[in-house]
């Protein structure tokens, strides 16, 4: 028999003064309340109550045990309330991982407004282009761009994104426009060289088949903002996410090529461990970012 139900029956009988009233509160029969108290006493090897048809009276041991049982039930109610509030009211410490450049410009930048509206939340960011182990390193969630998602995690789309080849109109005027993937071998390709970055090549799709093209150029770096600057200065071609260049594209400062070979999606995702109840601090922060990213002019004005 459930130990907690035994304790609840004991405390309920004392508080209400009878098995019948305790049974009414617990929505069971008086016989069931009696059985639970009997089982509790047998398990403890001690009598807790003197019971008669007219009254209940605590034994000396029962009075001591009652004090601990009440504290136990109070602590359990408090724990239940904390979990309930954590699911419905954002609170606690939210630890977020995000890529360095994107996280700096489009995640951490929006944290002050989030904590202003949710004063019981404290947010910490780890901005790093390495893919972290959320569970092992204790992160509540991560923002990731494209790539495979571990099936043990939940991935929620925050915004659409693609990877495209781009350069300035002046660069293409001076060096010609690549028409095929093989043409990239004749161009100065500016690569992102962080471990796990683009050393293995740029990825495309020809029909339904994924294709990787090895590229080369005279400049590479592990900083996305510097790579974007070099591209904007006409120094070469780069393979960039549309979130980085929507503004320059809209203004005609950059032009994309080889769009017919672009991967179909490289979306911006919120990733978090699978769990029965997602904490409110995670759910609310995800919705906060979605609202910002869905504004019609957000990406063109932010890049």
> How many independent structural domains?
3
Main β-sheet description? 5 strands, mixed
Assembly classification: single chain
Give unreliable regions as ranges.
none
What would you give as the CATH superfamily of the largest domain? Periplasmic binding protein-like II
N- to C-terminal distance: 63 Å
Would you count the extended β strands for me?
Answer: 14
Main sheet: which strands, in order across? 4-3-5-14-6
Helix content: 40-55%
Features:
single chain; 303 residues; alpha/beta; Arc Repressor Mutant, subunit A; D-Maltodextrin-Binding Protein, domain 2; 5-stranded mixed sheet; 12 helices; 14 strands; rod-shaped
Explain what this protein looks like in three dimensions.
By secondary structure, the chain is an alpha/beta fold. The protein folds into three domains: about 90 residues, Orthogonal Bundle (Arc Repressor Mutant, subunit A), CATH 1.10.10; about 100 residues, Periplasmic binding protein-like II (D-Maltodextrin-Binding Protein, domain 2); about 100 residues, Periplasmic binding protein-like II (D-Maltodextrin-Binding Protein, domain 2), CATH 3.40.190. It contains twelve helices and 14 strands. The strands form four sheets. The chain has a five-stranded mixed β-sheet with strand order 4-3-5-14-6, with helices on one face. A five-stranded mixed β-sheet has the order 11-8-12-7-13. A hairpin with a 4-residue loop joins strand 1 and strand 2. The chain is rod-shaped. The mean pLDDT is about 90.
